[in-house]
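Human: Not sure, check this?
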Amino acid sequence: MLEPTSPFTWASGWHSPIYCDNRITLSYPEVRDYMKQAFAEVIQAQFPNPDVIAGVATGAIAQGALVADVLDLPMVYVRASAKGHGRNNLVEGRISPGQKVVVVEDLISTGGSSLKAVEALRESGTEVMGMVAIFSYGFQVAEDNFKKAGIELFTLSDYHTLIEVALESGDIQEEQVEMLQQWRKDPSTWNK
């Protein structure tokens, strides 16, 4: 959702003219089918022969399962924090040291939670081949974090594409584009 004049507040406290709720995509079979096929194609082209698909909780669990089904691969998911009871799992599902894993994520902002999932998988002894995501804001901090972690990221869409499509469809006006670009440059101080 784009609301340049009525910003959303993220959990981080940042004010944002956009709220990207990728969970809604699951409600539309044609969109869901397109996304799972697109993910499968990217994975096959960029990360050939993975052993396991890992979804990041909670937003990418369903997407990970859909992609794993298309590729006929096992699927696991990574919690934001250990379960806290039972086996105290951080990674749910069957995974073995040495397996090659591709991580599926729904949204990349700073990359923090996504890369915590990567670290949990690495700590379990797997080889994380890379990550695919539905959308990225393209923040420099995320690019730096992924580079530092040695993780290659491919997304189905990004902030620049969103702005172009919103402008073409009339959801935003030309005079709003500069404000939207300014927000992406420094979201932590925007609209304070």
Q: What stands out?
A: The chain has one domain: 28-173. The beta strands are 8-9, 15-16, 52-56, 75-78, 91-92, 100-108, 127-136, 153-158. The longest strand covers residues 127-136.
